[in-house]
Amino acid sequence: MNRKPIFAANWKMNMGASATEDFLKSFLSKLLGQSFPAEIVIAPPFVSLAKLTEVLHSSGASNEAQSIQIAAQNCSEHDAGAYTGEVSVLMLREFLVHYVILGHSERRAIYGETDAVINAKIHKAREANLKPIFCIGETLAQREAGHLETVLRTQITEGLNNVSDKDMAEIVVAYEPVWAIGTGVTASSQQAQDAHALVRSVIAELYGQDTAAKIRIQYGGSVKPANAAELMACPDIDGALIGGAALEPQSFLEIIRNGCSNQPS
Ligand code: PEP
């Protein structure tokens, strides 16, 4: 199955509007004239979405700029109203957002997002035709206790509760072992491949082999230029969700380039 890899920068709470503009100028100049057999996505903080959209979609924006897709890092499960600090899916649509990261381990651990909340957000995102990047992953304690499969199975089953086959086709899954996020410790390519194969098999149980074979599953957790090629060479790894190493244009570009080095162009 030929799945187009997807490399997404998750900037977290970094990069205000002026830093976003600086990053893009540098990234686009490095990208000039190059094309990769992959999707490139950037997820800035909400307050930088306007700048990102302006630079990528202004008249005169280059083909390279227009090929970059925009993601949000979160969305509300509600449509509108008294939800101080929240941002709705329709507001995101106004900024030409295509993707939305949902279920990130930081949202689960720091903001208490449950599988049920994540599921409600996935439904809300699909109502607005946004594509969820649905994050799952185990903590080190869960892995060491032998609970990897149970944790992933529960997150997938509950997070995707009542998600239709049609909507599932628009979802990207990001497997991110919590112990590898922001720690500098990357899962070995064997650990990552085994987890990705497990995720794909659970999706096959829920949605059938055909859908499972088409779903893209990104790896996330301390991806760097030096480990991107080896991780992306694994048969069930279809790109990366990148935090720290995507804050710097050269390093993000090298991850994409190295990650694509084994892909048919
Ligand atoms: C992330 O936050 O999704 C992530 C993978 O971060 P890092 O690349 O910094 O580990």
List the SSEs and their pairings.
Elements: E1 6-10, H1 17-31, E2 39-43, H2 49-57, H3 63-66, E3 68-72, H4 89-93, E4 99-102, H5 105-111, H6 115-127, E5 131-136, H7 140-144, H8 148-159, H9 165-168, E6 172-175, H10 189-207, H11 209-214, E7 217-220, H12 225-232, E8 239-242, H13 249-259
Parallel strand pairs: 1-2, 1-8, 2-3, 3-4, 4-5, 5-6, 6-7, 7-8
The structure holds phosphoenolpyruvate (PEP).
Describe the overall structure.
The structure is a single chain. With 265 residues, this protein is an alpha/beta fold. The protein has one domain: Aldolase class I (TIM Barrel), CATH 3.20.20. Helix content is 45%, strand content 14%. The protein contains 13 helices and 8 strands. The protein has an 8-stranded parallel barrel with strand order 1-2-3-4-5-6-7-8, surrounded by 6 helices. Helix 1 links the parallel strand 1 and strand 2. The two termini are 14 Å apart. 44% of the residues are buried. The mean pLDDT is 96. Phosphoenolpyruvate (PEP) binds next to strand 8.
Number of helices: 13
Low-confidence segments:
none
The CATH class, by name, is Alpha Beta
Strand order of the largest sheet: 1-2-3-4-5-6-7-8
Major beta sheet summary: 8 strands, parallel, barrel
User: Termini, distance in Å?
Assistant: 14 Å
Helix/strand structural class: alpha/beta
Mean pLDDT: 96
CATH H-level homologous superfamily name: Aldolase class I
Bound molecules: phosphoenolpyruvate
Please state roughly what percent of the residues sit in beta strands, choosing from under 5%, 5-15%, 15-25%, 25-35%, 35-45% or over 45%. 5-15%
